Amino acid sequence: MLILLPPSEGKTAAGRGKPLDLDSLSFPELTSARRKVLDALVELCQADAEHARNVLGLPPGLADLVARNATLPQAATARADRVYSGVLYDALGLPGLPPDARRRATSRVAVVSSLFGLVRPTDRIPAYRLSGDVSLPGVGPVAAVWRSALDDVVPGAAGGLVVDLRSTTYAGFWRPQPDLARRVATVRVLHESGGRRTVVSHFNKATKGRLVRDLLLDGANPRSVTALVATLERLGWTVEVGDPGRYGTQLDVVVSAV
């Protein structure tokens, strides 16, 4: 099972640690694409801070992130499961999982990244700022870079089932081919209140984090969408299954509270 997570916009910078080593990251097939995006981002941020801020879509109050990007090759790194932060990652709580669940996370969880393509929780990365909808000078849309690079990587990493929890922006980085789509479950969270169902960002992110945490703690390794649904229901989740589609089968997880 491969669980695909979106990155977080907010990240926790390492206070100390080794500098970035692209060759040490998981999925070495992505090294050349990573270097291409990294070099373009660093060059942009070193040349003109105000222009870089506009390209990156950063408000004036976050101009310091341009300076951080400019020194990424020398910046201290930490494990990705400590760098990514925010609602989803707080609810998931990877660093606080028991050892057996953390081992499962190492082989089953991957974060889709606009800078690194795909990283495992144990990969050492610096805190960076690059949203998935950015177009970098000399490179173009980062989503297009990763659509090409990830096509050959994700199927091999998946092995069996793909549990896709990516947000809309990062869903465009990789789409399954028809032969794999039948083994892809795309998860949507619906908040039910007063007889109405809506998609609410906070509920969506927190619920996805808790769901992945439950799967890692439980240890089950479902190899089909049907088996995943059975596992989630056994763990107490309310799941409604949609029809198989071009990019997988949609699972609606219905919650009334976080």
Automatic annotation (TrEMBL):
<protein>
    <submittedName>
        <fullName>Peroxide stress protein YaaA</fullName>
    </submittedName>
</protein>
<dbReference type="GO" id="GO:0033194">
    <property type="term" value="P:response to hydroperoxide"/>
</dbReference>
<dbReference type="GO" id="GO:0005829">
    <property type="term" value="C:cytosol"/>
</dbReference>
<dbReference type="Pfam" id="PF03883">
    <property type="entry name" value="H2O2_YaaD"/>
</dbReference>
<dbReference type="InterPro" id="IPR005583">
    <property type="entry name" value="YaaA"/>
</dbReference>
